[in-house]
Design goal:
Strand content: 5-15%
Radius of gyration: 47 Å
Strand order of the largest sheet: 4-6-7-9-8
Number of helices: 10
Number of strands: 9
Distance between the termini: 65 Å
Shape: elongated
Largest sheet: 5 strands, mixed
Structural class: alpha+beta
Order of helices and strands: HHHEEHHHEHEEHEEHHEE
Helix content: 55-70%
Length: about 425
C-alpha cells in the first residue's frame, strides 16, 4: 500500500486549486525551515498510532491464545484416518483431549469448569475492550506529551504577559525562541507590548509638553495681566480724587490697550499651537535651489523690519525632494523674528542637507538663551510653534548657547523622498 496523506483529500484539492504550484513549493520550503505545530502534532499522533496498533495486536493475540488453549483442552481433534479401507469415503481419526482420563473413549469429553467459562468470557470481552482502552490511553498520552512539550510554555508566557498588562505593568519581555506558529504568536505579542510602551511614552511626552506649554502660557500672560491689573487699580484710586490729568489717563489707557493686545496675541498663539498639533502636513516635490532663493528674499524682509542684518547661507544641492514648504517657512519666520528681538546686530541662517534631513541653523550675536529655554521648561509661543512643526515633520529642534555669546537653534526636518 502507498503512503496515506495526513491532509484530507478535499482540503488538498482546494489548496491546489487556490494556490499556484510555485506558491505551494515556497510554502512547503518555508514550513521545512520553520517547524509547524500542526506537523509536530501529526508526528506525535503517527508515533502513538503505531504504538497503539502494536499493543492492540499483542493484547488481542495474547487473549486469543489463552482462550484457544482453554478450548482446545476440551475438544476432540478430527483428522483423516489412514486405516480406513473404503475408498469411496474418507474416514476420520479421533484424537481425544490431553486431559481426558480415557483417551480411547470417544464420548468421554471433560466438561468446562465455572472458572474456565468465566475466564473465556472475560477473555472475549478483553479482546474488544483492550484495543479500545489502548486507543483512549494513547490519545490521552499524546495530548499530554504534546501539551507539555509544545503548548505549555508559550501558553504560560502569554498568560503571564496578559496578566502583567492587565495590572498596568509593561516592564517585561516575552521571549520564546521557537519559530513555529506559537513562536510567531509570542513574537506578535511582544511587538504589541513594545508598541503599547511606545504609545504610552509618546502620550506621556505629550502630557509633559502640555504641562510645559501651560506653564509657558501662564508665564507669558502674567506680565500683561499685571499691567492691566496695576493700571486699573491706579485709575480707580486716583480718578475719583482728580489726581490724574487727561494726558496721564490717555497714556495709561494706551498701556492697558497694548497689554490687552498682547493677551489677544497670546490667546491666538495658543489656539494656533493646538491647531498645529492636529495639522497634517502636506509634502510635495520641492526644488531646493528655488526654495533657497525664496527663503533668502522672505527672511531679508523680516530682518529689515526688525532693524537687523541677516546672512542666508545655502548649501542645498540642485535637486528636488519632498518637503512641506509651509512648515519650513513657518519655522523660519518664528526663528528669525525671535533672533531680531534678541540679537544685538547680526545673525545668519544656514540651510543644508545632512543624512536625509533638511537642516536649518539660526545663530545670533545676542546674550544667549536663558536656562529655562535650554532645559525646555519655558520656550515661549514662537519657539513652541517651531518645536511642534519640527516634530510634525519627523524631525527635532535643539537650542544651545555659544561659548561666549550668541544663541543657536538647530532644526532637522526629515526628507520624505529619495535624494
Amino acid at each position: 500500500m502507498g503512503k496515506r496523506s495526513l491532509i484530507p483529500r478535499g482540503s488538498r484539492q482546494m489548496d491546489m486549486q487556490a494556490c499556484p504550484l510555485g506558491s505551494l513549493l515556497r510554502e512547503n520550503k518555508k514550513l521545512k525551515g520553520h517547524p509547524s505545530v500542526k506537523r509536530a502534532f501529526y508526528r506525535y499522533l503517527l508515533v502513538m498510532v503505531c504504538i497503539c496498533a502494536l499493543l492492540s495486536a499483542a493484547s488481542v493475540k495474547i487473549c486469543t491464545e489463552i482462550r484457544d488453549r482453554i478450548l482446545f483442552s476440551h475438544a476432540y481433534i478430527l483428522e483423516p484416518d489412514p486405516d480406513f479401507a473404503m475408498p469411496e469415503t474418507e474416514g476420520t481419526f479421533i484424537i481425544p483431549p490431553e486431559n481426558s482420563a480415557n483417551k480411547n473413549a470417544e464420548n468421554d469429553v471433560p466438561e468446562f469448569t465455572d472458572r474456565e467459562k468465566m475466564l473465556c468470557h472475560v477473555l472475549e470481552i478483553l479482546t474488544i475492550a483492550l484495543p479500545l482502552f489502548i486507543v483512549c490511553l494513547g490519545i490521552w498520552v499524546t495530548g499530554s506529551l504534546f501539551y507539555s512539550r509544545k503548548l505549555k510554555k508559550p501558553f504560560r508566557l502569554l498568560e503571564q504577559g496578559i496578566t502583567q498588562i492587565g495590572q498596568g505593568n509593561l516592564d517585561f519581555s516575552l521571549d520564546y525562541p521557537k519559530q513555529d506558529e506559537l513562536g510567531r504568536l509570542c513574537g506578535a505579542f511582544e511587538t504589541m507590548r513594545q508598541e503599547i510602551v511606545k504609545n504610552n511614552t509618546e502620550l506621556w511626552n505629550m502630557v509633559e509638553e502640555r504641562k510645559k506649554l501651560s506653564a509657558s502660557v501662564a508665564h507669558d500672560l502674567r506680565t500683561p495681566i499685571t499691567v492691566i491689573s496695576g493700571y486699573s487699580e491706579y485709575l480707580r484710586r486716583n480718578i475719583s480724587k482728580n489726581n490724574c490729568s487727561q494726558e496721564q489717563i490717555t497714556e495709561i489707557i494706551s498701556y492697558i490697550e497694548n497689554a490687552a493686545q498682547r493677551l489677544k496675541a497670546y490667546a491666538d498663539s495658543v489656539r494656533n499651537i493646538h491647531m498645529l498639533e492636529n495639522l497634517n502636513l502636506e509634502y510635495a516635490d520641492t526644488d531646493l535651489s528655488a526654495l533657497a532663493t525664496e527663503i533668502s528674499s522672505a527672511l531679508q524682509v523680516i530682518a529689515d523690519e526688525g532693524g537687523r542684518q541677516i546672512s542666508v547661507i545655502s548649501h542645498l544641492p540642485d535637486r528636488s525632494v519632498q518637503l512641506s514648504s509651509v512648515a519650513i517657512f513657518r519655522i523660519l519666520e518664528n526663528l528669525v523674528k525671535n533672533a531680531c528681538c534678541y540679537s544685538k546686530q547680526n545673525f545668519y541662517v544656514k540651510l543644508e542637507i545632512d543624512d536625509n534631513y533638511f537642516t536649518i541653523t539660526v545663530m545670533d550675536d545676542g546674550d544667549g538663551f536663558p536656562e529655562k529655554i535650554l532645559d525646555g521648561s519655558h520656550l515661549g509661543m514662537g519657539l513652541t510653534i517651531c518645536k511642534v512643526l519640527s516634530q510634525k515633520h519627523g524631525g527635532t529642534i535643539l537650542f544651545k548657547n555659544g561659548d561666549t555669546i550668541g544663541a543657536t537653534v538647530l532644526v532637522r526636518l526629515k526628507i520624505y523622498g529619495t535624494l
